[in-house]
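Sequence, please.
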């Protein structure tokens, strides 16, 4: 009798769960998902956890296919030549194929004092550490959010809507991803919530102390709680295991999401760097890349050439508290357009619907693997890629 094909998935985030579920569509494949936490973390809700409106957790039973073996542990090393992984508990798991979906987390702040005195928010543990600190701060205490991206905007809005005194320090630009028209609309909403927004060359943080934030232009902001949302990083597991990574530590792959070092290793989500042109780190891209990574493994098991991955974006949906939000539309290549929507309750409901639909998609893929192929297509991506040997790239001239 033929032996089952063993596939290990490292990481139980959006991409890892989608990949694991997709793999169960083929008989004879044993799937093991290794994740350090016993519950799924809705990272897109962590600002709500800090504000107290959601716990950002989902039981894996809701979103993971029954055929997936779930192991709560942390992978500490990948032995690619030996096709096995070692875990923090001392376990060793052999594999025929490996999906690397370790996700991303907060970048270590290099600003003096930030590591010691600021709180980060990009992981469950960080949000859980921050939540009681915010709750214990006096109602009139000054809260400072550093970082003008979507996480900073959502966190500042969430806290300000509760009546907190919030300053959002953006560095040079508020919402750098947004179109200028959308950026102005966000600024107006933040102003209505009472958020003080600081941007421009002088609004760069130079030091964080226990009770203050110092800026490049010499200003010192009183800050009872400083929340640091600037920058993301990826775990160094691939690099420590001797695999090729990009400058940020993402696993380098080809367009089929296969490691440039080993055809038995496939990457998905924030920790993947296909063709050294990774797509934006986001739930939106992870939900698309995850099942495609699973399809790459299934194709290799079947002895077929895997298809190139294809991820397209629709834009970005940002909550502005529980009662408002904004949708910034984008082209499939993630470049923004002038079009955006900003409103009150309807947009807040839309954002909530997006969050719920993500969990729904995970659960549907668990119950009907292969059902969801709803991702957008960026048909122009190949124009930016180096030509393969003997191949001309459409749309490019010599």
């Amino acid at each position: 009798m033929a032996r089952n094909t063993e596939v290990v998935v490292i990481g139980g985030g959006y991409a890892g769960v989608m990949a694991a579920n997709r793999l169960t569509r083929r008989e004879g494949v044993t799937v093991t998902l290794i994740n350090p936490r016993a519950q799924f973390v809705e990272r897109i809700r962590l600002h709500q956890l800090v504000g107290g409106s959601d716990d950002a957790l989902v039981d894996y039973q809701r979103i993971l296919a029954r055929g997936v073996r779930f192991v709560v542990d942390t992978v500490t090393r990948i032995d690619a030549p030996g096709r096995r992984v070692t875990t923090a508990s001392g376990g060793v798991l052999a594999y025929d194929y490996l999906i690397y979906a370790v996700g991303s987390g907060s970048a270590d702040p290099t600003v003096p004092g930030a590591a010691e005195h600021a709180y980060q928010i990009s992981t469950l543990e960080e949000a859980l550490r921050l939540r009681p600190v915010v709750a214990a701060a006096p109602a009139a205490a000054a809260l400072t959010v550093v970082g003008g991206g979507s996480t900073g905007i959502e966190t500042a809005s969430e806290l300000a809507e509760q009546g907190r005194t919030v300053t959002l320090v953006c560095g040079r630009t508020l919402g750098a991803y947004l179109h200028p028209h959308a950026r102005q609309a966000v600024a107006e909403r933040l102003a209505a919530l009472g958020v003080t927004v600081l941007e421009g060359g002088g609004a760069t943080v130079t030091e964080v102390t226990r009770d203050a934030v110092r800026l490049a232009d010499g200003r010192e902001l009183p800050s009872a709680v400083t929340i640091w949302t600037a920058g993301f990083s990826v775990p160094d597991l691939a690099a420590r295991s001797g695999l090729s990574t990009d400058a940020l530590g993402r696993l380098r792959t080809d367009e089929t999401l296969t490691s440039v070092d080993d055809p038995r290793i496939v990457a998905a989500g924030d920790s993947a760097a296909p063709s050294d042109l990774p797509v934006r780190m986001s739930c939106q891209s992870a939900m698309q890349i995850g099942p495609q990574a699973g399809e790459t493994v299934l194709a290799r098991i079947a002895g077929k050439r895997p298809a190139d991955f294809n991820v397209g974006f629709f834009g970005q949906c940002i909550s502005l508290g529980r009662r408002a939000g904004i949708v910034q539309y984008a082209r499939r290549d993630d470049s923004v357009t002038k079009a955006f929507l900003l409103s009150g309750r309807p947009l807040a409901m839309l954002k909530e619907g997006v969050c719920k639909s993500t969990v729904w998609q995970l659960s549907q893929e668990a119950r009907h693997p292969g059902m969801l192929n709803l991702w957008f297509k960026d048909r122009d991506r190949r124009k930016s890629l180096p030509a393969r040997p003997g191949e001309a790239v459409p749309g490019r001239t010599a």
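Confidence is low (pLDDT under 50) at residues 390-398.
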